[in-house]
Amino acid sequence: MTPDGVLGAYFAFIRHPFEDLSSSAVAERLAREAGVVCLPGSYFGQGQERYLRLAFANADAVSIGRLVERLR
């Protein structure tokens, strides 16, 4: 048996650079303007307001590269 490609479910917990915006506001803006869906860090407890959780479930290298471009 040989794999067709490497797929998996991974998460990235990243700090957003917008001090004046909540993680919920940043997550909504990313979804609306860049087509990137993520969870606000505030969902994961106190002190997580400057973070976002991104999921890379079954994403290949090309898809991850597109995400990097969308986040810029």
UniProtKB/TrEMBL annotation:
InterPro entries named among the record's database cross-references: Aminotransferase_I/II_large, PyrdxlP-dep_Trfase, PyrdxlP-dep_Trfase_small
Stretches assigned to the Aminotransferase class I/classII large domain: 11-71
Molecular function terms from GO: pyridoxal phosphate binding; transaminase activity
Protein's UniProt keywords contain Transferase: yes
Alphabetical keyword list: Aminotransferase, Transferase
Pfam families: Aminotran_1_2
Keyword Transferase: yes
Name of this chain's protein: Aspartate/methionine/tyrosine aminotransferase
Lineage: Bacteria, Pseudomonadati, Pseudomonadota, Alphaproteobacteria, Hyphomicrobiales
